[in-house]
């Protein structure tokens, strides 16, 4: 401990003796470690521990995945069998999002209150406790007692955090419930927003009211997003649980279970694959940035170590062992890294704020990401590793023939060949990595610009979309058509509204079971899977700003008994989009052809009736939407009696400004109409481009920092070389060398390093650019414009880095240079 304390005190004195070096090294490391820590926070939240609950890493969602890859909830009988027989699952709980958001009018505003049902053990499975009161009892779950838990946010906003809220009564859907507890902040149903793939237009908010629900009802309900959640036993992986659950499901009678693949889904499995790749790419980018920072500091350390070789030799001559001197050098390096890590925590905090501000809607849960204990431990470990990495380089200069060093080394020595090669190699690698990051960032920038120029197939400006439930109760069944028409009339009467229609915003739709097409009138029907269905009114295409490339809009509505119960089915006349027409009728026009939904429209019903194709609509090209649901679309007239109605409104100005007034108008028609939050076309387009914009902005920022660090590294290498050659340059100028020739030689040497860096960078760039392929649109990884721009940028910065040392070289006074030696 005495020698360790001596090393620490000596390291502090040496760092304080060279404040310029210390400040530059600490700031460089702070950038690399801080950026790395911030991205690790994001990766930890999304890929390692996405559920912010104590048992989050042990929570899985048993689901059935069919041959098309579409996920569905499991049957309650299968859940009960798993609960009774599984050895990998400790406990199963259920939860269900309410099928509607209750809209309460207060002072002309709409207060949307989402609710959910949960089993009595739901909080226990997650590992959380109410902040006030208690959870439901098993008896309350079984009987459906009139008790409720309210969310922490509702407790604060409506009840001002009062403790006496317990025992109070809250009115909900015409029924009174006694408040028995307050949930922990941010409690929601895990994986719910991602699982609701059949309703991609809605991102379910956190429930404000929780009601008791049995596990059977939660997994068999027809509304909302029912789900079962299993808590794995300690040490059991999701793959092991999947194998066991699949084996138990083999003999179940449910056809969907037999034909599908049973999976124990983790929260990570629901992430969009492009978002997962974006996070991994950013993680690789900050890793390269940290390596550049370490290389920069290692260069500085090598320069100092060479100038301190005389000091090291004296210490060795006085009896210090080589290991002792190396440990002293490593102590200084680790101390630098720890200081850089401490400052890097502040950089990470600031970077996280930027990431949260830029996050796309699909990553909205990043709003609560913070520098928690695992992240701070990562920062600490990273700091120590960085100190060892860049501190190990100078240690190789310790030792050698002590006598030769003491006799030959002077303050103005030209430096050893090994040290120069090491510093040159580090600088070349810095330039190569910065070129790689610039190319990847440039590809994403080019892709983003192409996305902005992409023809959408509709006009988003001025559009407002509101998903509503028109009379959810049975008493409204015969009045829904009248209420729906009244809503349309009131929307058209609003100032600034041009027209209103029924239908989802273009690019969205219900995910059906696919269709069968009777294209030729003979032979077996042609099947198409994963087709999106949009239920519309006849004026939908005009309101959405879409055009029909052939035929007309449907205007014939055949009302059948099947439409009064169960889900809506296709009308007698439909419109298909061009992509669906190309896939099923590649050589003929689909006008007049017949299609129908695959399979029965509901359990126990007959096959769906045939519908006639009367028109072809243009394709919708939304940024970031590449799956079949958006590619193949069928437009069908909506059933008069189905309660869930999507309203699409066209305004003269910005849809953002009119959204609130449109939502208020819809719910003001009747107390039985509930509306989800309005979505403007501008926000919808921005959200679809957000993942690409998110990755692009961060990668550009990291690439710029990497370019600056590599430029500084090249400048330091060339400038140090000029300093070491001051006597030589002075003699050459004294003997008549032209200053221009001296400057050209300095610049040529710097550009030689840059050229080698570009050469190695081309290989790294070729490999790394393939990683961003999945995030690109209309741009290839070998895009010549992007590569040329990155090359010119690196060459320009390299030239700038060499011009300053070259100018200093020509300013050398031969007399002063010779006298200094």
Describe it for me?
There is one protein chain. With 821 residues, the protein is an alpha+beta fold. Strands 1, 2, 3, 4, 5, 6, 7, 8, 9, 10 and 11 form an 11-stranded mixed beta sheet that branches. Strands 14, 15, 16, 17, 18, 19, 20, 21 and 22 form a 9-stranded mixed beta sheet that branches. Strands 12, 13, 23, 24 and 25 form a 5-stranded antiparallel beta sheet that branches. Helix 2 (19-48) crosses helix 14, helix 12 crosses helix 15 and helix 16 packs antiparallel against helix 22 (681-724). The chain starts with a helix and ends with a helix.
Distance between the termini: 42 Å
User: Rounded to an integer, what's the Rg over CA atoms?
Assistant: 34 Å
Distinct helical segment count = 26
Shape: globular
Number of strand elements? 25
**How confident is the prediction overall: mean pLDDT?**
80
Helical content stands at: 40-55%
Largest sheet at a glance? 11 strands, mixed
Structural class: alpha+beta
Measured by DSSP, the beta-strand proportion falls in 15-25%
Unreliable segments of 5+ consecutive residues: 103-110, 193-204, 221-225, 409-415, 559-566, 600-606
């Amino acid at each position: 401990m005495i020698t360790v304390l001596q090393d620490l005190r000596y390291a502090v004195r040496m760092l304080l003796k060279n404040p310029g070096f210390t400040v530059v090294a600490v700031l460089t490391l702070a950038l690399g470690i801080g950026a790395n820590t911030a991205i690790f926070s994001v990766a930890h939240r999304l890929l390692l521990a996405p559920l912010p609950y104590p048992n989050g890493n042990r929570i899985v969602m048993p689901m059935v995945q069919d041959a098309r890859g579409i996920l569905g909830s499991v049957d309650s009988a299968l859940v009960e069998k798993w609960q009774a027989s599984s050895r990998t699952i400790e406990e199963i709980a259920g939860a269900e999002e309410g099928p509607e958001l209750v809209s309460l009018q207060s002072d002309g505003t709409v207060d949307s209150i989402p609710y959910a049902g949960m089993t009595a053990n739901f909080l226990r499975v997650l590992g959380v406790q109410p902040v006030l009161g208690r959870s439901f009892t098993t008896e309350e779950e079984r009987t459906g007692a009139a008790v409720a838990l309210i969310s922490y946010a509702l407790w604060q906003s409506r009840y001002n955090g009062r403790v006496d809220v317990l025992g109070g009564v809250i009115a909900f859907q015409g029924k009174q419930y006694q408040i028995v507890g307050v949930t922990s902040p941010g409690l929601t149903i895990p994986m719910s927003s991602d699982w609701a793939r059949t309703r991609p237009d809605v991102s379910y908010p956190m429930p404000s009211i929780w009601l008791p629900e049995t596990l059977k009802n939660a997994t068999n309900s027809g509304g909302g997003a029912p789900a079962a959640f299993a808590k794995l036993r300690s040490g059991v992986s999701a793959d092991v649980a999947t194998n066991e659950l699949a084996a138990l499901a083999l003999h179940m009678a449910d056809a969907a279970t037999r034909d599908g693949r049973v999976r124990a889904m983790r929260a990570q499995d629901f992430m969009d694959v492009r978002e997962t790749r974006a996070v991994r790419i950013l993680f690789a980018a900050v890793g390269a940035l940290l390596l550049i920072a370490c290389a920069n500091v290692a260069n500085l350390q090598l320069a100092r170590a060479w100038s301190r070789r005389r000091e090291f030799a004296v210490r060795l001559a006085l009896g210090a062992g080589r290991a002792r001197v190396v440990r002293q050098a490593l102590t200084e390096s680790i101390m630098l890294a720890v200081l850089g890590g401490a400052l890097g925590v502040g950089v990470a905090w600031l970077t996280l704020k930027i990431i949260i501000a830029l996050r796309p809607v699909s990553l909205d849960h990043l709003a609560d990401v913070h520098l928690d204990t695992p992240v701070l431990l990562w920062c600490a470990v990273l700091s120590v590793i960085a100190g060892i990495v860049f501190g190990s380089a100078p240690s190789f200069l310790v030792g050698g023939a002590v006598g030769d060093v003491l006799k030959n080394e002077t303050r103005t020595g030209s430096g050893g060949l090994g040290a120069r090669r090491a510093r040159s190699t580090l600088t070349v690698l810095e330039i190569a990595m910065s070129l790689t990051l610039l190319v990847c960032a440039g590809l994403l920038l080019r892709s983003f610009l192409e996305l902005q120029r992409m023809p959408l197939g509709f006009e988003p400006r001025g559009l407002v979309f509101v998903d509503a439930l028109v009379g959810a109760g049975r008493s409204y069944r015969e009045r829904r058509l009248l209420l729906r028409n009244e809503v349309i009339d009131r929307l058209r009467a609003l100032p600034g509204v041009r027209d209103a229609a029924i239908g989802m915003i273009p690019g969205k739709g219900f995910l059906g079971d696919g269709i069968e097409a009777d294209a030729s009138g003979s032979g077996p029907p042609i099947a198409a899977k994963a087709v999106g269905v949009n239920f519309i009114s006849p004026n939908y295409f005009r309101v959405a700003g879409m055009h029909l490339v052939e035929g007309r809009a449907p205007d014939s509505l055949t009302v059948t008994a099947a439409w009064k119960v169960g889900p809506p089915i296709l009308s007698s006349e439909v419109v298909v989009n061009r992509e669906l027409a190309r896939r099923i009728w590649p050589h003929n026009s689909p006008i007049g052809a017949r299609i129908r939904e695959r399979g029965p429209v509901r359990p126990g019903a007959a096959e769906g009736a045939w519908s006639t194709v009367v028109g072809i609509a243009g394709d919708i090209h939304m940024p970031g939407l590449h799956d079949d649901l958006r590619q193949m679309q069928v437009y069908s007239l909506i059933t008069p009696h189905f309660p869930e109605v999507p309203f699409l409104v066209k305004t003269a100005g910005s849809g953002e400004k009119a959204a609130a007034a449109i939502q208020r108008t819809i719910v003001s028609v009747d107390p039985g109409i509930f509306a989800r939050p309005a979505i403007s076309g501008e926000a919808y387009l921005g959200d679809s481009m957000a993942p690409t914009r998110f990755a692009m902005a961060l990668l550009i920022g990291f690439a710029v920092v990497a370019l600056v660090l590599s430029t500084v590294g090249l400048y330091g290498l060339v400038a140090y070389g000029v300093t070491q050659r001051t006597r030589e340059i002075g003699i050459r100028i004294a003997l008549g060398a032209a200053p221009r020739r001296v400057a050209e030689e300095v610049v040529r040497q710097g550009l030689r390093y840059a050229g080698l860096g570009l050469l190695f960078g081309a290989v790294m760039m070729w490999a790394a650019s393939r990683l961003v392929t999945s995030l690109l649109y209309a741009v290839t990884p070998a895009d010549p414009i992007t590569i040329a721009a990155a090359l010119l940028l690196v060459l320009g910065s390299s030239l700038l880095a060499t011009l300053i040392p070259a100018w200093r070289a020509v300013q050398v006074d031969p007399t002063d240079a010779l006298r200094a030696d």
